[in-house]
Amino acid sequence: MTVLALAAVLLSGCLRAQVSMGVSSDDRVSGRIVVAVIPTAEGDTGPGLDVPDSLAGKIRVQPYSSDGYVGSEALFSDLTFGDVQQLGGLSDQADGLFQLSLVRSGDLVALSGQVDLGTVPADGSDVQFTIAFPARVTTTNGAREGDNVVSWALPAGERSTLRAEVRYSDPNTRSFAGWAGIVFGVTVGVAAIVGGMAYVSRNPSLRTPRRRNDAR
């Protein structure tokens, strides 16, 4: 995500920086990052990205080339909210220029971020951020593209903030509730069996009579 701050050092040519991500109901994050420019010379491959060791196996980086832009594309999946904050490690140049966090407090998940594109030329720059949640977004300063999806078109030459809040149940709470339900069901079942046995033992008439052999 923080690779958007690469824009601060791309002072020549047109910039394309696009981030799209989705948050699952289990608080896992998947998505795609593109950082590319119009090449200024033959053989120019645009900006590159390096996966930090802490995210190895969760992010795959590959060359990007589309519509005359060249650069890098990062595909990621199964990131935790903590992992999201480490995406700045994809580029040393991005450190501190783009900050993004996802934080849970009970059933509330809050997205907050800051993007500083103050040194990016406005002409031809295309910087976008889109996120989809597993439930309806309650508040945001972005553009709604449906109940669950919010996007921001981040203007070059300015500092921008990102805010969004959504409510859905904590996956850890759901897991505990399911386990508690199973335990409750087993407990009730055992109690019913024990109670039935006790009732029968107190009522001899309910016992099955033994068969007697007549003496011959």
- Uncertain segments are 1-12, 176-182
Binned, the helix content reads 10-25%
Strand content: 35-45%
Biggest sheet architecture: 7 strands, mixed
Number of domains: 2
H/E topology pattern: EEEEHEEEEEEEH
- Globular, elongated, flat, extended or rod-shaped: what is the shape? globular
How many helices does DSSP assign?
A: 2
Mean pLDDT: 79
The total beta strand count reads 11
Separation of termini?
Answer: 95 Å
Walk me through the structure.
The structure is a single chain. The chain has 216 residues and is α+β, with helices and mostly antiparallel strands. It folds into two domains: 2-167, no CATH class; 171-205. It contains two helices and eleven strands. The protein has helices spanning 81-84, 171-202; strands at 15-23, 29-37, 59-66, 69-79, 98-105, 108-116, 126-132, 137-140, 143-144, 149-153, 159-167. The protein has a seven-stranded mixed β-sheet. It has a four-stranded antiparallel β-sheet with strand order 5-6-11-8. The N and C termini lie far apart (95 Å). The relative contact order is 0.16. Residues 1-12 and 176-182 have low confidence and may be disordered.
